[in-house]
Amino acid sequence: MRKWRRPVRTVRLRFTVLYGAMFLLSGIGLLVITNLVGLGGTRTSQSAPSGTPPVEPATLAAATDRITWLQTQLSDTHAAQSRQLLIGSAVALVVMGVVSVVLGRVIAGRVLRPLRMITAATRRISADNLHERLAAQGPADEVKDLADTIDELLERLESSFDAQRRFVANASHELRTPLATMRASLDVALAKPEPIPAQTAVLADRLRTELDQVDRLLEGFLTLARTQHGALADRTTLSLRQLANAALHARAADITTRRLAVDPAGAIDDSAWTQGNRTLLTRMIDNVIDNAITHNHQGGWIRLAGTTGAGTAQLVVETGGRVLDQEQVDSLVRPFQRLSADRTHSGTGSGLGLSIVAAIAAAHGGTLDLQARPEGGLRVAISLPAAAVPAETAA
């Protein structure tokens, strides 16, 4: 004998039971209202007929007239009762129709609430917080099956992202050793006392330049991997004005060489402070300033500004230049995306600068906004959560 198995509680079954019970109750209500209206009509029919009955029949003709009168009264009473019953049924139908719609909406909302919660939780989860799970509670039905499947998918995605970041970080770290060996070999070869042919010296300089470029590329990979790996350590309160001043000071020689007119970082509000990792935030602003210097025309200008408001500290760096296509500008936040080569004076660059800026800003709960200026050039705006000015600085 086969063992009896308890039927599975499915969403379809729950909908069937709920809506079936609802419409059953609606039908019962409709019948009750109809019967109440009918009882009212019966009471009316049982009352004395209106009008003055004829005198007691004395002849057959008089009896026939009375029968005819009674039949007419009975027909009128039945017609009035039928109309009353029809009107009552129509009213009951309208009332119960409205009640059924309201009840159906309420019940459907309660039944579909888990799906809405799953949708809202899924929207909150992105590449930066794949560790979160839906963890849906409730009976083992299709809704919980869906939530568990999404959780498993998120787990696989998290493992894949972690593996990718570890690979990038490990590969970048391991490649630094052969690069250092190659650079040391070049230095040893050039340091020999024998005269070195000019062609060899040019080739060595070219190789050293390329090795430096590869080294910067690997450093960018390491920064991206570190930024995208999760929570940031060593958080401290930093001034955007001080970071921008330091970046400009460190690049004073490049600014002079290119004859760039730079608005001082004093235009940045003293209250523009944020909290985060000093190394990463320094790298972020360094990349923005480097981008402003490198992707600028000879004798151009750079303008810095910073404000604080609505819990956000913002740093804005603008540069002049030719008119740019906004579609191409939007793509600069993706790794290895560059504008046309004639925009740079050197033709070099890893294509990771602004993508690193976007990743660091996102890791700190901020955003990066790139806009092509209508007059020409680029506007880079970094928005970060504002932090209170330290007490010793305010004093």
TrEMBL record:
Transmembrane segments: 12-33, 85-108
Keyword annotations: Kinase, Membrane, Phosphoprotein, Transferase, Transmembrane, Transmembrane helix, Two-component regulatory system
CDD domains the record matches: HAMP (cd06225), HATPase (cd00075), HisKA (cd00082)
Organism domain of life: Bacteria
Domain Histidine kinase per the UniProt entry, residue ranges: 170-388
Cellular localisation: Cell membrane
Keyword presence, Transmembrane helix: yes
Annotated coiled-coil segments of the chain: none
A GO molecular-function annotation: phosphorelay sensor kinase activity
Domain HAMP: 109-162
Catalytic function, reaction form: ATP + protein L-histidine = ADP + protein N-phospho-L-histidine
EC number(s) stated in the UniProt entry for this protein: 2.7.13.3
Database matches in SMART domains: HAMP, HATPase_c, HisKA
Enzyme class at the top of the EC tree: transferase
An example Gene Ontology CC term for this record: plasma membrane
Keyword Transferase: yes
Protein name in UniProt: histidine kinase
